[in-house]
Amino acid sequence: xxxVNSRTRPTTLTSSPTIKVSLLQGSIFATTLAAYVLxxxxxxxxxxxxxxxxxxxLGGISHPPGYPFFTGLCQxxxxxxxxGVMAGNLMSxxxxxxxxxxxxxxxxxxxxxxxxxxxxxxxxxxxxxxWSQAIIIEVYTLASLFFVVCWxxxxxxxxxxxxxxxxxxxxxxxxxxxxxxxLMLLSTPALVFVxxxxxxxxxxxxxxxxxxxxxxxxFTLGLTPYLAILLTDNPxxxxxxxxxxxxxxxxxxxxxxxxxxxxxxxxxxxxxxIIWLIGQSGSQLGPIAIPIILAGFVIGLRTxxxxxxxxxxxxxxxxxxxxxxxxxFSYEFLYRAVFKPYPVxxxxxxxxxxxxxxxxxxxxxxxxxxxxxxxxxxLAIVLVASVxxxxxxxxxxxxxxxxxxxxxxxxxxxxxxxxxxxRDDLEVGVLGYLHKVRGMRPDIELRNWETLVFSNRFLxxxxxxxxxxxxxxDFLADNERPLFASSLPIYPQEQHGAYFRYTPNxxxxxxxxxxxxxxxxxxxxLYITGLITDPHELHYAYLRLVSFTRQYVGLAITQNGLSQExxxxxxxxxxxxxxxxxxxxxxxxxxxxxxxxxxMETGLAAQANIPExxxxxxxxxxxxxxxxxxxxxxxxxxxxxxxxxxxxAINPAxxxxxxxxxxxxxxxTGNTATLETLTRRYPDISCK
Length: 688
Description:
This protein is 64% helix and 3% strand. It is mainly α and 688 residues long.
């Protein structure tokens, strides 16, 4: 094997006996696993944690593409350990620790250098994105494990030319596709390049019919977990319910229910994501590591055989830049958070280049120092420790989180026998886990408006849209229980802060909800002081503040007066961007021309402090509200037009509600040419 920087004398570790190498692998597993266990959340979190916990503990089918191998394992193992969310989180941690251990073996086999392998394994284990996925119940660490295991099997084939390793790789590769097929397919070119040194032998092997049949049989056997989706009857938890036919199964695996292309996304969004991905890649191991990673990449180009270099380059490109070209995400905060874990396999290459750079530094120190063993090894340990230290604070989620506290308070605040419609993915996961797994509030009925996830759906999600709408209409007409939701298109509704109550026989208003007020104070403390750092939690907090502001502005309008405590709470809400935006949303329809100055002041204050978490839709709404404020008497059509145009420039979606007032503004000013351009661009504008 060719060593990195082979012109220097190998490290002491390289020539150590096998027992020392085994101890190194054991130390990698134990060190990373201990770090993950110490930092993992003790309560339910966001992303897909709630859904996975429900599927694992209650049975069912996870969201597309189903992840049947992962869910099959967790359904067998998690119920054996009644430790809340910890058992599910621990699965990810074990997969992650095993990934680091196998990655060590892959790098050692590839480079012949134990120092490089040890540094690469621990650097990857403590990289910020991989660590974040290792401490929550998710499929990404298992995806990384499958990749490195396939890689290691192929390396064994290269060194032994034993065809059984090809069969093993085919089986493992098939299994990997039942976990996360998109990431594995994107990383496949890197695996193919592992075989370049023996490509002639592979070509000869594949001429034999028995090898073809053996490889295909093993690959097909690896795909069999997908049958579990088809064979699951009456699943307790399932996004679309029971999958009855092969056609439904294929659509489910293909993720046809999802859209990865946003209407407003264009090439500028892809370019922004490329720049962001480069920054993310450089930040994986902390700021100190960036020059070392760059140096390691250059050294690898000079010292490693080209097939090995291309293996790592393709490994990096697969689920970063190539995936970005396949997706059509709008470049905004939420979708960056969604994209963030996708490159976990790609970051193996980043950790490797870092390790190559560290090995070069330690070799240089070894030549320049009389302390041949102590100083170089100490330097390697310090640099790895710097990676862990850089990423510890962002990934230490062992303290109680606010998300579970919110879910508990919400459920406790509902009246007996209530029906609650959980709509978005985050709410479905959090409330679903607390209600169905933890058994909180068994007297209430938790449903989903789109008839997804829960087994108490009114009818199949595959039913025609007209039938679903009629069924929901009938339910609302016949229902006599108190009905609540955080976001549904049903009116009239009473605003209760965290949610609203459907009041079909009364006009809508805002109601006090004292049970939720202490939580609101707590959430405001976290949000205003910047203590919410997880991107999914920050997005969720933003939405909750919108809901609470609707309640408190509504109370200020409809009630005789607010208490001093309530006034302070309202002022704190309105000090935030979502609070200002929602204040405009509630007050503008009142068309109080006397409030124009106050509304404009609120809008301009929001404009001066737009947070990163604000979506393009929210920013577009802000400029629409500024435009509508400018159109209030005495109207300033030119200023209003500028704001409406800016709203559409930021959020050019056909559903942008600035389109109609902009059309009116163009008509008022006689700007026919621009009006015609707008009409051609948005031919379906309906402003009746």
